[in-house]
Amino acid sequence: MKSEANFQTYRLGPFELEHPFILAPMAGITNSPFRRLMRRRKSALVISELVSANGIEHSGGKTLDLLRFHEEERLVGLQIFGEDTELLVKAAQVVERMGADFVDLNLGCPVPKVVKKGAGSAMCRDTASLGRTLEAMVKSVKIPVTIKIRTGWDSQTKNAVEVVRVAAEAGISWVAIHGRTRAQGYSGLADWDFIGDVKAKSPLPIIGNGDVGTPQIAVDRFKNYGVDAVMIGRGALRNPFIFDQSRALLLGAEPQMPTSESYLQLMDEQRAMLQEVFNPRMAMIHARKFLAWYSAGFPGCHEFRSKVFSIPDPGILWDEAREFFLKSTQNRDFKFMNQPFLMGGHG
Ligand SMILES: Cc1cc2nc3c(=O)[nH]c(=O)nc-3n(C[C@H](O)[C@H](O)[C@H](O)COP(=O)(O)O)c2cc1C
Prior knowledge:
By secondary structure, the protein is of the alpha/beta class.
């Protein structure tokens, strides 16, 4: 239902969303604290980073920690990967027992270590075998099973239409598509025309993904490519307010530029959540990464960045960050913002 009324909802498979803009799963980034933070800043749902089905079966402890989530994150999906149907079925059942709202299977990871074993994007090369795995997963749980894919293995085998058909037959609830082939890695641009074409032929809801860096691009992709939702990864790291801004723009309002106050609030919440979940060393590693991303393009960001990576004391680091965002939330350089970054990941 896509009317212009303010109270409308957007259907995605079995769920009703307030709007169609969703945080993409990212390894080492979309952990529970960041997912919580982005739900508070209006990502319509959240998904964990990829978690190994093999690890869930064999290594317990640390792997299971990756599956923990906070109630505040709902709607929350947990993403798994692997090549063995039996282990994927078991992992999906663990995800269901953990209480997640849906289980997502990673079929887009291009990383050699993963595809060599036949997992991630390699699974889409043999669609008959993929269909059997998906069907087994869907039959084994009551929660929705969803998948995230690429457009294909390489430019010769862009088989997303076929993958979506097989997924629909198996009972998958939606397909998210990162608009690059496995061979492309993170180079070139996401092919939204191709995503739009897959959507036009798809019996399933389709989430489009790739290179959405501004609310304007998010709304353009949603309106012009017919997709059911738009997934935003790296764009949310440089602009953690992008979901709410995209929602506002879609409803016809002018997106609010974040103020110093918005950043201070964000940092206070993130600092507290990181302390809650991680040991001091890990909390510091995460603090550094996020502060560097958030500050990109603001005046003085280069000096701030070098401070971020050299200050050893977390208290001093957060104080510096507060000071930076007190004076630096105007005059952002959006040209710099559009430069590609983080050109590698698991999907
Ligand atoms: C650092 C990093 C880690 C990623 N990890 C995952 C992952 O665990 N699972 C997954 O499905 N995709 C993963 N991805 C892919 C993203 O979900 C997304 O498809 C990709 O970044 C393109 O979208 P974007 O241009 O909005 O960032 C990762 C991407 C990056 C940059």
